[in-house]
Amino acid sequence: MCGIVAYKGPKLNAGKVVFDGLKLLEYRGYDSSGIAIHNNGNVEVFKKKGKVKNSEKLFKNSKISSNIAIGHTRWATHGEPSDVNSHPIVSYNKKYTIVHNGIIENYKELKSLLEDEGYKFQTDTDTEVLVNFIESCTSKSEDFAKGFSYALSKVTGAFGIVLMVNNNPDILYAARKGSPLAIGQFNGNFILASDASPIIKYTNKIIYLENDTFLKISGNSFKIFDFKLKSKNKNFIEVDLELQKVELGKYDSYMLKEIMEQPNSLTQTMLGRVKDNDITLGGITDENGNNLIEAKRIIIVGCGTSWHAALTAEYFLEKYLKIPVEVEYASEFRYREPIIYKDDVVFVISQSGETADTLEATKIAKKKGAVVLGIVNAVGSSIARETDEGCYLHAGPEIGVASTKAFTSQLLVLFMIGIKAGYLKRHISESKYYKMINQLKEIPSKVDEIIRESSLIEKVAKKIYKKDHCLFMSRGNNFPVALEGALKLKEISYIHAEGYPAAELKHGPIALIDKNMPVVVICTKSDEYEKILSNVMEIKARKAIVIGVLDPKNFHMKKHFDHYIEVPDTSKDFSPIINQIPLQLIAYYCAIYRGCDVDMPRNLAKSVTVE
Ligand code: M6R
Question: pLDDT band at 241, cuts 50/70/90?
Fold first, then answer.
């Protein structure tokens, strides 16, 4: 969602730092952008609806060069995407200029208080309310810090903000409640951003501002305080993120890059964990390993693709741990007073580690005393820090809005956890354990086999990209793969798509089937494949365009499909990883043929930092 970049320092051109950084944050999803910059005693604002290059062009025409600026990419919440609603936003009496990521929930109440004081508003945004509220509170307070912290403590909702003091180019404030903010410092230069990617070019030592704290940069030093003005420690962490990992390289889009690098990302996920004939998960201590083995129940929480990973894991974990596994949408879990016992183990899954609902679900599960383990990709993210322990995906940064490599690594981590726990619980024999470990090791090369044949998948996509609708179906542990295939297709190509358990089609969706409806059937090695074949016959009889994802065991079924994609033979347990790859590629090629921007699909944001 919204992205923030700010710079203050003696060394660099602030405008350039801000725009370079905003371009690295484009992946988060946005609909307008802007910059505010100190210029000879004034603060000038350049902002525009649309791409970053629009506001950059305006700014470049001004030829301003300065050493302090704040910039923003806005994903509209309050008020439509427009020039006026874009950030930065200047306060009513022109004392401050703000950029904001998050949502101010009590903005109506604050707005009416401010209107009573004579404030007038030019935008529809909650952000203008926030900057005016800060202005009002600080003007009534004996010193700025008191008024500022008072204002922040009265705001409900989520915010990451950077605030410029319009008559003082030597000071910059930032604050956080919910929405993340990272700070890098080098030789008196400061860069603030919504994530580490705009900072790592300059330094890999970063502080993630804690919730309910604010930061004051003055001259070449800075201090952090909580909202009660108590000074806080500066906890720098070293971020292991290389710039080349967030650059496109030879690819036209991050989505394609991330699909193609899955043999490597999956290898990285196993690195140091799957070796010889054993699985070692360093992120989970023996104590929590034992808690997992003794757990009466597992609850897995996530959103979107991460929820699909959880649903796939449900099949695997119930089979090998022999305990109930419940899978929950984080947004529902947090509001329905869930029953959580102390001997439950709760897994929270999130690529970004910043999803607002998943973060809140984490806090609720912790409060209720359960062991909460994170399965997160973004190192140092809020969920990673909030959970007791867990496993990082180590899949490398995922920039494309559509989650691809994170999904396959999430599955891999969940499988590794399940195999190890199932073995320790003696539901997996020693010989089966070794066999499964070897099967895991073979996954990256099988994924590579599919990727090398991507031109065949492109041909299949060419057959369906003009359609308005598409169904995906499968059974068992590949049913969530069908759901994920449908999500990928709809989010980046805007083809309406749904996933179903194959047997469910007869209970309603089959009414949709005619000669214009493509149905993608994931039909690899499975105990239920005879049954899937019957379902294929039912939709063929109704003239659907049937596309099969088949493995060598099922090649004899080719004749029943209009088109098919071959995937390598793999164990049924791990087939969801393999089977997802062609579905990612179908979505990618359909979107490209339809002329869609695969990395920045309309209305979507990479990190959903508001609920
Ligand atoms: O970062 P998270 O895994 O918590 O994100 C959850 C969803 O927002 C995310 O998976 C979303 O559904 C993706 N756009 C799917 O491609």
Answer: low
Inter-residue contact 103 to 116 (CB < 8 Å): no
State whether CATH 1.10.630.10 applies to domain 254-452. Answer: no
On whether the 453-606 domain is CATH 3.40.50.10490, my answer is: yes
pLDDT at 527: 66
Q: Which of 27, 179, 255, 303 to mutate to test the pocket of ligand 1 (most atoms within 8 A of CB)?
A: 303
Instruction: Kindly report the CATH number that applies to the domain delimited by 3-238.
Output: 3.60.20.10
Cβ within 8 Å of residue 488, ≥6 positions away: 402, 404, 583, 584, 586, 587
Check: CB of residue 406 under 8 Å from CB of residue 266. no
Q: Determine the atom of ligand 1 nearest the C-alpha atom of 308.
A: 10
**pLDDT tens for each residue of 156-177:** 988 999 999 999 999 999 999 9
Confidence of residue 388 (pLDDT cuts 50, 70, 90): confident
Q: Which residues contact 29 (CB under 8 A, 6 or more apart)?
A: 1, 75, 401, 600, 603, 604, 605, 606
Q: Is the CB of 402 under 6 A from ligand 1?
A: yes
CB 57 within 8 A of CB 50: no
- The reply to whether ligand 1 has any atom less than 6 angstroms from the CB of 381 is no
Topology match between the domains 3-238 and 254-452: no
120 is catalytic: no
Q: Ligand 1 centre and the CA of 183: distance in Å?
A: 25
Give the three-class secondary structure for 563. strand
Average pLDDT, the chain: 93
Residue-wise DSSP of 340-395: --TTEEEEEEESSS--HHHHHHHHHHHHTT-EEEEEESSTT-HHHHHSSEEEE---
Query: Do β-strands 274-275 and 297-302 pair in parallel, antiparallel, or remain unpaired?
Result: unpaired
Whether the full predicted model's pTM is greater than 0.85, yes or no, is no
Whole-number Å distance, alpha carbon 328 to ligand 1 midpoint, is: 14
Angle at 608 between CA 606 and CA 610, to 5 degrees: 155
pLDDT value at residue 243: 63
Q: How far is the CA of 402 from the centre of ligand 1 (A)?
A: 7
pLDDT of residue 455: 95
pLDDT at 525: 76
Task: Tell me the CA–centroid distance for residue 286 and ligand 1, in Å.
Answer: 30
Tally of CB atoms within 10 A around 538: 15
- Rounded to whole angstroms, the Cα distance separating 82 from 56 reads 16
Percentage of the chain modeled with pLDDT above 70: 99
606 is catalytic: yes
Per-residue pLDDT tens digits for 329-373 = 999 999 988 899 989 999 999 999 999 999 999 999 999 999 999
Q: Under 8 Å CB-to-CB from 339, ≥6 apart: which residues? A: none
Q: What pLDDT is stored for residue 553 in this prediction?
A: 83
Q: Which residue has the tokens 């401050």?
A: 96
Ligand 1 pocket, residue 67 CB under 6 Å: no
Cis peptide before 88 (omega within 30 of 0): yes
The 3-state DSSP class for residue 160 equals strand
Domain chopping of the chain, boundaries: 3-238, 254-452, 453-606
State the Cα–Cα distance between residues 495 and 486, nearest whole angstrom: 9
Among protein residues, the one whose CA lies closest to atom 9 of ligand 1: 304
Catalytic member of 2, 303, 391, 596: 2
Asked if pLDDT for residue 244 goes beyond 70, the answer is no
